[in-house]
Amino acid sequence: MKINKKNSLSFKVLSSVSEDKIKQLYDIHLKSLPNDIIHFFGYDIEKKYILGLIEENKCRIIVALSNKSIVGFIILRFGFFNIKKIIDLSSILRFLINSILNPMLILRLTYQLLKPNIIPKQSCEIDYFAVSNRFKSQGIGKKLLKIAEKTAKEKKFKKIFTKTYNKKLAYFYINKKKAVLLNKYKILHYLYFCVYWKIN
Ligand SMILES: CC(C)(COP(=O)(O)OP(=O)(O)OC[C@H]1O[C@@H](n2cnc3c(N)ncnc32)[C@H](O)[C@@H]1OP(=O)(O)O)[C@@H](O)C(=O)NCCC(=O)NCCS
User: Fold this and answer.
1) Who lines ligand 1 at CB under 6 A?
2) pLDDT at position 160
């Protein structure tokens, strides 16, 4: 579904993705949020995660495109996805090797497993949200959020929940979206903000 087109920039809501598009999502995600835990399991796990969400009809992927290439995206997730289904031995080994190089990874993973997010009722979740460096701070994120809200509303959700360690963005949600700060916690030097806001 095409939503808008302006200066060769267009926005789309995808319910399926090609391998090439998954690679583009992965590259932007890795460059924008290199410390996200999922990267340390390897590309295949992120690919299986996205394909798993699509197969179970548990997400919409909202993308910003410039000349047919993805330059920003939001993965809007509907409900729980059991990540254990996609983790295999080679990805565990990869994670363990990465943990030898960076022992704090184990601590962060343990914390996240022991303290899962409590998501408010009638909420869907912004899972991943990233815009590639060259296109940041030009309003693409705001447009992606607007489309995410419209998509959530169409799916009958009343709220959007998200978790971020981008402080500037957390305050954008609180001040501009009138988001409620549910929880704030620190894992090592990462301060996480859990927020939700009502969709108008
Ligand atoms: C956060 C991000 C997705 C926003 O996309 P964007 O296109 O740059 O955003 P916009 O220009 O529409 O601005 C929206 C808000 O995002 C925040 N933002 C914008 N540029 C930012 C940057 N370079 N770094 C951090 N936050 C930024 C600001 O709060 C901004 O609102 P404001 O200008 O009213 O304060 C993008 O900057 C990014 O990929 N950052 C790194 C990854 C990240 O933190 N992802 C979100 C956490 S899961």
Assistant:
1) 32-33, 72, 129-131, 136-142, 164, 166, 168-169, 172, 176
2) 98
Residue ranges with strand state E in 22-174: 59-66, 69-77, 123-131, 159-164
pTM, 2 dp = 0.93
Q: State the fold for domain 2-198.
A: Aminopeptidase (3.40.630)
Contacts 24+ apart (CB under 8 A), 98-103: 98/40, 99/40, 102/40
Domain boundaries, the chain: 2-198
- Mean predicted lDDT score pLDDT of the chain: 92
Distance 131 CA to ligand 1 centre (A): 8
**How many angstroms is it from 168 CA to the middle of ligand 1?**
7
